[in-house]
Design goal:
alpha/beta, Rossmann fold, 5 strands, 326 residues, Helicase, Ruva Protein, domain 3
Length: 326
């Protein structure tokens, strides 16, 4: 006898996140604070700190969904900062293209030559000029013969990327686009940069934050190790990001049970044996309260029961299955 498994095997969201399990209310408290800051025409800058599996990506995408509710808003989610500020810039530039295609009037607020480049991109199809204009604008390397043919300047380097990005964000704000929401995931990946590159990248982010227009939300997510690296490497940036810090903590047994019920309710499924106290205690013990691990273990138990044609698993079988997979 099979039943529907409501739990993801990999707790990484795809697309929008319209609901989230928030047992302590800290996520919605953060969102309320963001809204308060925006209502005062100020800038919100913050950091979400938590280990892998603690839901940082879910929270960022949920914030995007809750804050980016108006047709005049601009939101970009950056899954990883990459090794260069040009990666960061590329995500911004791609979203700007989408925005301009929906609202061509924004072009008049942009500086040249960017305004002319985006106008060609927005109005053209898949012709050669449009292709190379887009490649140039998003920071890709364009051969010199095509840059000369179409009157493009040199390829965009890091300094120019920061300059254009600052101009773009301030220009769309002047055009009435707000709020501007920038969400950066896995900032800890910068640890993999060399010391010089890492310091330069962090300094670019500090300059960008200082140049943001009002009614902008800028949030990064990091592991504890990544956050400590920012604190030690670039205190000036850490001071700005620490305007609001959300530290994610492991779940307790009640939170584990609540998380499983949350996913069951989302899929209109009820698996009573999974909610027994002794099963919850085992899942908590094997997961160390890591939400992502909780969902993975619950999924493993459901898949095993379905594969064996069992309606439920007794506690001894639960122990056996978890010991095999953990």
């Amino acid at each position: 006898m099979s039943f529907r498994c409501p739990f993801p095997t990999v707790a990484i969201p795809a697309g929008n996140v319209s609901s989230i399990y928030d047992p302590k209310g800290v996520i919605n408290e953060m969102i309320d604070h963001i809204r308060e800051v925006l209502s005062k025409n100020q800038i919100f800058v913050g950091v979400i700190v938590g280990n892998y599996g603690f839901g940082k990506t879910h929270i960022l995408l949920y914030i995007r969904e809750k804050i980016n509710l108006t047709t005049n808003s601009f939101a970009v989610y950056i899954p990883s900062p990459g090794m260069s500020i040009k990666t960061f810039y590329s995500y911004i530039a791609r979203e700007i293209i989408k925005l301009v295609k929906e609202n061509r009037s924004i072009i008049e607020y942009l500086n040249e030559p960017i305004a002319s480049v985006i106008e060609v991109i927005a109005r053209s199809g898949e012709d050669e000029q449009s292709y190379y204009f887009k490649q140039w604008f998003i920071g890709e390397s364009v051969p010199i013969k095509y840059r000369q043919k179409y009157g493009l300047g040199g390829n965009i380097n890091e300094e120019r990327a920061l300059e254009i990005m600052t101009m773009l964000l301030n220009s769309i704000h002047q055009a009435g686009i707000s709020p501007i929401v920038i969400l950066v995931d896995e900032i800890e990946n910068l640890i993999m940069c060399t010391n010089v590159k890492r310091l330069r990248y962090l300094n670019y982010l500090r300059i960008l934050i200082d140049s943001l227009p009002v009614k902008t939300v800028f949030i990064v997510a990091s592991t504890p190790a990544g956050w400590n690296e920012i604190i030690n490497t670039h205190p000036a940036l850490a001071r700005r990001l620490s305007s609001y810090i959300l530290y994610l903590k492991p779940f307790n047994e009640d939170d584990v049970k609540g998380l499983l019920e949350f996913y069951m309710n989302k899929s209109n499924t009820r698996i009573e044996w999974l909610l027994r106290n002794e099963v919850i205690d085992l899942i908590y013990e094997y997961s160390d309260g890591n939400p992502g691990e909780v969902l993975k273990l619950a999924s493993i138990l459901c898949i095993y029961a379905n594969a064996k044609g069992l309606k439920e698993l007794d506690i001894e079988l639960v122990k056996e299955v978890l010991s095999q997979y953990v």
